[in-house]
TrEMBL record:
It comes from Mangrovivirga cuniculi. This is Phosphate regulon transcriptional regulatory protein PhoB. GO terms for biological process: regulation of DNA-templated transcription. Residues 3-116 form the Response regulatory domain. The lineage of its organism: Bacteria, Pseudomonadati, Bacteroidota, Cytophagia, Cytophagales. Residues 131-230 form the OmpR/PhoB-type domain. It comes from the Bacteria. Keywords: DNA-binding, Phosphoprotein, Transcription, Transcription regulation, Two-component regulatory system. The modification 4-aspartylphosphate is found at residue 52. One of its GO terms (cellular component) is protein-DNA complex. One of its GO terms (molecular function) is transcription cis-regulatory region binding.
Length: 234
């Protein structure tokens, strides 16, 4: 049974989502303000968080930021059409997906199922017998332990940063467009949100590259996107 935390201040929406999540065999936790939402996220370790942007006491962006500082739980944001900028910021902070209000229950269920499928694929990959450790010069990536070491120091990566790094490191020399990375890492087509990939790549580079102005591991392939440098010593 999956555990889902719904952080939403509208009781009618909470009740509606609870009914349909229970139909998916999910245990539903509820929070009606941001502070309670953060507390429940950190104390109950849910499998998925449904997070409204407009919340009392603490807004959804700050909730997302605080949760992401401690755990990689998938987050689906609920946003209004007028919250375009906040939606972009939410994705850049680590939200996995967003749904614009008003939304259909069919769309909601499809998004939830897609998150669960992607989570299972990642877990299967990590726990499979083929799991391994990548070593590239001063960079070590332990897939099973989700640990990254740079020059003997452990580096803390967000879930999306880790997934970007492992995807590219597993295929050195292969170029990925920003659209490719959005589909593979976020799981959906976010038209117009390619800059979200840029932001995550920049933060990833800041953590693993010895020189941001001359990246050693993650190279830009002009006109296409990014690739892991195939010339780095293994």
């Amino acid at each position: 049974m999956k555990k889902v935390l719904v952080i939403e201040d509208d009781p009618e929406i909470v009740n509606l989502l609870e009914i349909h999540l229970k139909d998916l065999n999910c245990e539903v936790l509820k929070a009606y303000d941001g502070n309670t939402g953060v507390d429940k996220a950190l104390s109950h370790d849910p499998d998925l968080i449904i997070l409204d942007l407009s919340l009392p006491e603490k807004d959804g962006l700050n909730v997302c930021r605080e949760v992401r500082a401690h755990q990689g739980t998938p987050i689906i944001m609920l946003t209004a059409k007028s919250e375009e900028i906040d939606r972009v910021l939410g994705l850049e902070m680590g939200a996995d997906d967003y749904i614009t209000k008003p939304f259909s229950i069919r769309e909601f269920i499809a998004r939830v199922k897609a998150i669960f499928r992607r989570t299972k694929m990642i877990e299967d990959r990590i726990t499979s017998p083929e799991s391994k450790t990548f070593r590239f010069d001063e960079l070590t990536i332990d897939i099973e332990k989700r640990k990254v070491i740079v020059r003997n120091d452990k580096v803390e990566l967000s879930p999306k940063e880790f997934e970007l790094l492992t995807l590219m490191a597993a295929h050195p020399g292969r170029s990925y467009s920003r659209s490719d990375l959005l589909k593979l890492i976020w799981g959906y087509d976010f038209d117009g949100y390619e800059h979200t990939v840029n932001s995550h790549i920049n933060r990833l580079r800041a953590k693993i590259e010895p020189d941001m102005n001359n990246p050693k591991y993650i190279k830009t392939t002009w006109g296409i996107g990014y690739k892991f440098n195939e010339e780095v010593t293994i």
